[in-house]
Structure formats: C-alpha cells, structure tokens
Amino acid sequence: MSLKFVFDYRSPYAYLANTQLKSLPVTAQMLPLDIVAVMAIVGNQPSPKCPPKARYSGMDAGRWARRYGVPLSPNKAAMAAMGSGQIAADLFSRAAVAAQDLGVFDALHDALFSAYWGEPVDLVSEQGRVQLLRNQGIDVDVWAHAEQDAVRDALRSRVEAAAEQGVFGAPTFFVGEEMFFGNDRLEFVRDALTQGGAQ
Question: Which residues form the domain of 103?
C-alpha cells in the first residue's frame, strides 16, 4: 500500500505530522507544494485570513506538540518576511523540490521544518539559508536551484495536480487513492496502511 504526504513548510500541522511519519509502517512519498496556491484554486482560505481560527490553531498546535513531545516555536522572522514579500511565499516549497532534484532532500527536509516551527534559525537572509545547508552537510546550492524555471514549473504542476485530486489543505495523506486531511487523522492513516497489508 502506497503512502503520499502532501505538505507545505508553512503549515504547523504539517510540521507536527512530519514528526510522526517515521512511526508509520511504510515510507511516505514526499510531495511538497504551495498549499496557498492550492487553496486559491479550490476556494479555501488560509488560517491567517480568519483571526479566530488562527488563534485557535495556535493553541491547538501547542497541544499536539506537547502530546508528541516536540518543540513548537514559530519562526516569526521568517513569517514576517514572507508576509511582507521580503522572501517569496513559496520559497521553501521550491527549495524542497530543488532538493529532491539534487538528491539532498532527506538531509534538508526535517531541518527546514524544524527551522520554521521547532527551533527557529535565520531563514530570512541568504547567509542564514546557506548556513542551514552547511549545517546539514549539503554542499550544493539548493537555494539557487530553487530559482530555476524548471523548479517553478514543477511546483506549479504539483499544485494543479493536487487540486484535481481534491487536496484543499496541508497536511494531506493518500493511502492508495484514499485521502486523509490533517495531523489529527494520522491514526486513520495508520489503520488504512495496516488494513492494506503494509509491511
């Protein structure tokens, strides 16, 4: 039984779900995308567009972090830089696609999630982003590769495909063709994998 994990580094619930992926009985295919672009296609709204929902999500994510025993410390500088346009909103998703192209995704992925939600580091400056790569032993310029048209086109294609599949938010899981939305559906994901005979 196949497992796909659709995520965006800007989602706290995707961060939380990511901390639990290794406990699942199969290895997930990782599908980074620009979830805000998906939402625009399907008519959904990000939590910041609804202040009460945003406040609740912050409290709820904290509960899940405590349950999982993982840090939760949002990178406010990176969020502000994205909100102001100082750095592109889809930069980290493009970096993930670039890292997959370059064969360094596994080295970067968890560190990038942690830098955004767990233990913040400088993601705003170019120097800070380069240092993140160095800290993970990555000696290729993921950030430069993320600026290539081919990477932008690949991310755009993923966004369109995800919308067609019914994705409306992150994290989303697919077990075979069955879709599950949200960190709080991980047990359903686990059950589906087990019932499907995953080893």
Answer: 3-195
Instruction: Give the CATH number for residue 31.
Output: 3.40.30.10
Write out pLDDT tens, residues 90-100.
Answer: 999 999 999 99
Number of domains, the chain: 1
Residues forming beta bridges with residue 5, ordered by sequence position: 30, 173
pTM of the predicted model as reported, rounded to 2 decimal places: 0.95
Tens of pLDDT, residues 153-184: 999 999 999 999 999 999 999 999 999 999 99
**pLDDT value of position 197:** 52
